[in-house]
Amino acid sequence: MTKPHPVIKPQPGILSIAPYVGGESAVPGANRAIKLSSNENPYGPSPRAVAAYAAAADRLAIYPDGGHARLRAAIAEVEGLEPERIICGAGSDEIISMLCQAYAGPGDEVLHTEHGFGMYRISALAAGATPVEAPEKDMRTDVDALLAACTERTRLIFVANPNNPTGTLVGADEIARLARLKPARALLVLDGAYAEYVRAPGYDAGARLARMRDDVVMTRTFSKIHGLAALRIGWAYAPDHVIDALDRIRGPFNLSTPALEAGEAAIRDLEWRETCALRNEVWRDWLAKRLAAAGMPCLPSEGNFLLAHVGAGRVERMDAFFKARGVILRKVAGYKLPEHIRITVGDEEACRLVAELAARFAREDQEGSA
Ligand SMILES: *Cc1c(COP(=O)(O)O)cnc(C)c1O
């Protein structure tokens, strides 16, 4: 533990933040680990995005376009949105952080769901605000519980849909009900990090709601289906007044030129995106069946990951068993899910390996405990 300085101190609340713990990325002793801990795209980015990234190498001495004009235009064109209502951030993490900084401070509350994404809490605390957690029902976002947790101090409500780490989705009608009944002063933020994987009919990640209302924001990312997690590109679709506020606090050059150019190429490659979504659906559903057969039922997932119920006490052993064989999974006790493990849906080879290891682990673990 670092010792606090006697007089130089960060803002109140900062030292009570437990730093974000990402998925592990390496296994000591294994030279080629299969990383299934951070919901990255196993097929990587569109080859066009890689080419655009490389082509940007001859302009590194020049500041990037601080207005992100071409990337916003491309997103607007592909997603059918207005470019002036789009803002880009260094990952959607930065958008989440800017929203908290702009709308919540000491005495204010930032509401999120029980098993919600860890950055909501961290960004709320960093802004000096108080994170508040609403219970979920059967590991699904519960709109009634969110409404019950609202107070006159609620400034932001974060809902990831589908949620991470559960993978579950709530319907557009429920989300619309939340928007309608929440306190007028609270901004509703719909985090659509996994939107491109969702096949549910009528799902639009909240775009229509954000267009119609002046109190709803939709966030998206290039880190998941677009396979560009290393470049840090996220965006939000928001009402004009929110764009105006965020533009005042964001760093003027918060996205690099290689990121802007790769992002533009990636979002225009709809064929690559569809290929990845299709493969994900096929192998996710295949793997869910195999895990269930091995005694680890999974929640129905709309994302590129599965949340498997492994059972109390078995999580640590399973994690170690996989790690010893070069496969990194994600423990989610930090998300109040001590009996579950989250597994990113890899490519065919990775999924077959996970299925085989899960079956072996279940067999051997049972023999060991018999
Ligand atoms: C992965 C993820 C993000 C994306 O974060 P980036 O900063 O864009 O990489 C946002 N929200 C949720 C729920 C996620 O799982």
TrEMBL record:
Pfam families with a match to the protein in the record: Aminotran_1_2 (PF00155)
Modification N6-(pyridoxal phosphate)lysine occurs at: K224
InterPro entries associated with the record: Aminotransferase_I/II_large, HisP_aminotrans, HistidinolP_aminotransfase, PyrdxlP-dep_Trfase, PyrdxlP-dep_Trfase_major, PyrdxlP-dep_Trfase_small
Domain Aminotransferase class I/classII large per the UniProt entry, residue ranges: 34-355
Top-level taxon in the UniProt lineage: Bacteria
GO molecular function, one term: pyridoxal phosphate binding
HAMAP family xrefs: HisC_aminotrans_2 (MF_01023)
Entry's family note: Belongs to the class-II pyridoxal-phosphate-dependent aminotransferase family. Histidinol-phosphate aminotransferase subfamily.
Protein name per UniProt: Histidinol-phosphate aminotransferase
Organism from which the protein derives: Oceanicella actignis
